[in-house]
Amino acid sequence: MRTKSHHIPSHEEAELAELAKIQPFKAKPVDHSILASNRPLLLPASRHLPTVPESPAITKPRPPPARPPSPERIVHARPVPRTVYQPPAEPQRERRPVTVPDFELPGDQISRKKRLEFEERQREEEEARKREREFHAQPLPFDDAPAHNRAPVLPRPVTQPQPFKLETDLRGMFSRLALDSRLEREQQELDALKEFKAQPIPHGHDEPFFPTASSRPLTEVDDVVLKSDVRAEERKLFDYKRKEKEKEDEILRQEMKREAELYEAECIRRLRNSQVHRALPPQYANMPPVNIHPSDRKLTDPESPFIGAKRRTSAQIVVGKGMSPAGVPAGGVGDPGGYDGEHFPYVGGGGAELQKRLYEAAEGLRLQKQIDGMGSGRAKQ
């Protein structure tokens, strides 16, 4: 690992470097004409003439004409109203005596009775407490009562105190003497410490002092390896390894992305190939013959939709004179009870149901006409 060289310049080297940075001063030569002249020197005359002020060629706007002075304004004050000098009107108040009627609620008598009972009870309790606090002394005994078979009591002599000594007093005296001696010894030691004692005069102090050159070698400045430099180098190495790892990860990521794209393209190609239709050749030998049979279904009869004017005109069905609604089913298009020989009203639903009933009525009328035609033909024969 490369190490950074550290060279600390000495004081003499720093001064030499500062002097080397200073550029030498080079003065210009003196003009001898200035020294030789015996009069004050004047500045050379200027070749340019002084500037003559001129008015600019512009047109100034004319000032507007002065306005005539406006007439003095006269203020006409309004007259003071008369009500100002009159005293304000005082309202007339009618004072009526207020009489409080005497009344009593049904519960007032009960509450008054309870209050008297409560006060009486409080007073009795207070008197009982006072009697309990009173002092009642017991009666004194009577000495003059006759003593029955009692022994005479002889007077005893008065107790005389005797001098004595306690052990605590003896221990206290010894303790006090020891404390006094210790305090006296400590005070003596403090006094001894407070006394001034001068240091002795060093030998040869009367001789003059002459400095001598030091025999120690000069301090050699070595290259110092700081911890910060070591950490900086370690950080550079760490950053370099991190960048290399990031590059490898990016290359691996790009490779994985490229492989994924190739795999996806291959899957799409296979899917498209699998979805292409490949027709098989016809197998005529194994196919049964096709026999087309005619259909037995009836052809579709076109019918006009039941909308518009057809719906509106179907409210009543017009039947020819002399015709009866024969063939019309009961509860169908018309009501036989309301048939007048020419018209019969329609009673029923609308839409497909109505169209169906109209077709049934038309079929009945057609059959009726056929029957009438056959009857007329027989009559002619």
Write the layout of secondary structure elements.
Elements: H1 11-21, H2 32-36, H3 106-133, H4 167-194, H5 227-275, H6 309-312, E1 316-318, E2 343-345, H7 352-380
Antiparallel strand pairs: 1-2
User: Care to count the β-strands?
Assistant: 2
| Major β-sheet profile | 2 strands, antiparallel
Read across the widest sheet, the strand sequence of neighbours is 1-2
Chain-averaged pLDDT: 77
Which descriptors apply to this entry?
381 residues; mainly alpha; two-stranded antiparallel sheet; extended
Describe the protein in words.
- The protein has helices spanning 11-21, 32-36, 106-133, 167-194, 227-275, 309-312, 352-380, and strands at 316-318, 343-345.
- A two-stranded antiparallel ribbon has the order 1-2.
- It is extended.
- It is built from 7 helices and 2 strands; from the N terminus they run ααααααββα.
- The protein is mainly alpha-helical and 381 residues long.
- Mean pLDDT is 77; it is low at 316-339.
Summarize the structure.
By secondary structure, the protein is an all-alpha fold.
